[in-house]
Amino acid sequence: MSVGSTELQGAEAAALPPPEAGMSEKRYYMACLDLSGRDVIVVGAGAVAREKIEGLLDAGARVTVVAPDVSEAVEALARSRRLALIRGPYRTEDLEGRFLVVAATSITPLNERVYADAEARGMLCNVVDVPELCSFILPAVHRDDPIAVAISTGGASPALAQRLRDDVARLVTREHVRLARDLRELRPWAKEHLPTYEARRDFFRELVEERLG
Question: Rounded to an integer, what distance in angstroms lies between the CA atom of residue 202 and that of residue 112?
Fold first, then answer.
């Protein structure tokens, strides 16, 4: 590394704000949601919203999108009947009957309103890239069904989460995928023939060790 680049890095580091003393780390409860057949709503219909919409559709959710302006990509999804589209401004009543809401807009007052409305109803809410307005956040995910690798930095840095996801995903091989599918097929047999949780746990642990060494 040259002296010039070292000096540049030092200058960049000096320009960064120091960590806030006494900041507490929020700890999230990690879970996987079964959204198959559940009604969810996305507020916003731009490029960021499209990314969230596609993830929800991939999970089997019934998606409704509400926005006054709709991107061509979201229009195409509506035309193919993959989602329902409400063309117009967000209304509080749009949340009725929904399991969760994702707000993907750049309008702070609107995002705050969606979050407040969701909180009043006990609904799950994610405001994209605003963790303080989220009751759940979304990790960076790599899928090789049935395996899913999910990495979260607790909202600190999506870029770092994506890099870590890619690094960890390289450890998942086709052998892991085949093994996961085989173990899934064995679960009904184990449930029937191994009466306790501990017996099933030990049985599957031994199988994993035999296959992976």
Answer: 48
CB 50, CB 74: distance < 8 Å: yes
* Number of independent structural domains in the chain: 2
- pLDDT of 127-156, one tens digit each? 999 999 999 999 999 999 999 999 999 888
Would you say residue 1 lies in a domain?
Answer: no
Same domain, 52 and 130: yes
* Contacts for 97 with CB less than 8 Å, ≥ 6 apart: 39
Task: Write out the DSSP string of 118-169.
Answer: HHHHT-EEEETT-GGG-SS---EEEEETTEEEEE--TTS-HHHHHHHHHHHH
Residue 181: domain span:
174-212
Q: How far apart are CA 92 and CA 11, in angstroms?
A: 48
Measured between alpha carbons, how far is 44 from 48 in angstroms, rounded to an integer?
8
Q: Is 42 helix (H, G, I), strand (E, B) or coil?
A: strand
Residue 28 lies in a domain: no
Write the CA distances from 168 to 103, 150, 152, 164, 173, integer angstroms.
29, 9, 12, 6, 11
